[in-house]
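Ticket #4471: structure output looks truncated?

Reporter: J.K.
Steps to reproduce: submitted the chain below (246 residues) through the standard prediction queue, then opened the result file.
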Amino acid sequence: MITQQPPHENGQPVLQIHDLHFSYPDGRKALRGISLQIKRGERVALVGPNGAGKSTLMLHLNGILLGQGQIQIGNLALHEENLPLIRAKVGLVFQNPDDQLFSPTVFDDVAFGPLHMGLAEAEVRARVARALSQVSMSDYADRLSYHLSTGEKKRITIATVLAMQPEILVFDEPSAGLDPRARRGLINLLRDLKLTMLVSSHDMRLVAELFPRMVIVDQGQIVADGQTDSLLKETALLEKHGLEAP
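Returned output as attached by the reporter:
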């Protein structure tokens, strides 16, 4: 595996994964001993070909899937009894926003998480207002989610996790399905969010622009981990693992 010294070397780890294995019920091994550490404030891109295990890894970070190995978010080990706390700390944004938006209005979607945390109504409303402001969608609170464009829906899904005040944002293919204007708007939005991020993406231009560290995954293993600008110069490495430099 190619490794380099990652940025934020002296920061506190917000995510620690050690020797994570996972097989699906049909016997297919999706993760083969993944170990990864992300420091607070880091922006990390997870890249690799389809079927490499990227989405499977992400679904472990808030307990949707449970494999063999150790995962720690902040100072909390991921166990079934900790899942409500873990899910508040890890804001997972799915590739398809329709998998995440299910309430009658935008307000209801963004309020869902805080309400289920048992927060008072005033705090819920304050969190919804702040989250919608962060994604520049303050005027959409009373809109019907299913009437929005794909780009607008993606912003609302981000607001749903920001309302939980997570420690880390995890995105699966955030720019998928967006036209150029919506994609540029998303890039500007992600740049302005001052949170630790782990993003799975095939959009190598987005990766190069926003994520200083890149982790390449293939066949359920990490095959390279280092500075994005350096790894993007490794043409043979990229080609071997189904990637192209932007």
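Triage note (M.O.): checked the attachment and the full token line is present. The radius of gyration is 18 Å.
Status: closed, working as intended.
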